[in-house]
């Protein structure tokens, strides 16, 4: 059996802690999770956890980053499967909402992260996502698929509305049903952007990640 290198062991330890923390944060919420419980489950000391993440918030931020990665993949796959373009953009938006039907993601991404992580809504990851949306929307306007307006303003509006509405749905007593309602309402809003005779150019649009 090959001997694991130190970088491999470090990566495995980080991955194990992130997985344990994600389950705990998703079930109990950020404030209710005790680091001693996490370190006991991982079979390590609190000092070892601090070596990898510096703080409970640092560990939580790593969990959020891992979920962001998964959301990006889900949106990109939905976009590609729909053939890109306007259909792909809309499919990406729907993929984000489907992901938010998971109760653990609702707790982490919609309830705790905005409150616990400073500048969460304007983090670099979100800025990159919005920039990609601006590029996609501008291309769709140039192709005559959707009505022309300021693409940056439109991207900010769609991203903000989708995220805010997902948070609203998650806070309701029927989150799954309300997320479906949000998806239907978003479809109606996006319908209004379409030109009368949209182009069939495939493009490379993607929804919120």
Account of the 3D structure:
- The protein is mainly α and 209 residues long.
- It has one domain: Tetracycline Repressor, domain 2.
- 72% of the residues lie in helices and 0% in strands.
- The chain has helices at residues 6-28, 35-42, 46-53, 56-81, 85-99, 103-116, 124-142, 151-170, 175-191.
- It starts with 5 loop residues before the first helix and ends in an 18-residue tail after the last helix.
Layout of strands and helices, then pairs:
Blueprint: H1 6-28, H2 35-42, H3 46-53, H4 56-81, H5 85-99, H6 103-116, H7 124-142, H8 151-170, H9 175-191
Helix pairs in contact: 1-2, 1-4, 1-6, 4-5, 4-6, 5-9, 6-8, 7-8, 8-9
Q: If you compute it from the alpha carbons, what radius of gyration comes out, rounded to the nearest whole angstrom?
A: 20 Å
Number of domains: 1
The total of beta strands comes to 0
Structural class: mainly alpha
CATH superfamily: Tetracycline Repressor, domain 2
Helix % is: over 70%
Alpha plus pi helix count: 9
| Strand-residue proportion | under 5%
- Compute the separation of the termini in Å: 40 Å
Which class in CATH terms?
A: Mainly Alpha
CATH architecture: Orthogonal Bundle
- Average pLDDT over all residues: 88
Work out the oligomeric state of the chains in this entry. Answer: single chain
Series of H and E elements: HHHHHHHHH
Short description:
With 209 residues, this protein is mainly alpha-helical. The protein is built from 9 helices and no strands.
Top keywords for this entry?
209 residues; mainly alpha; Tetracycline Repressor, domain 2; 9 helices; 72% helix; 0% strand
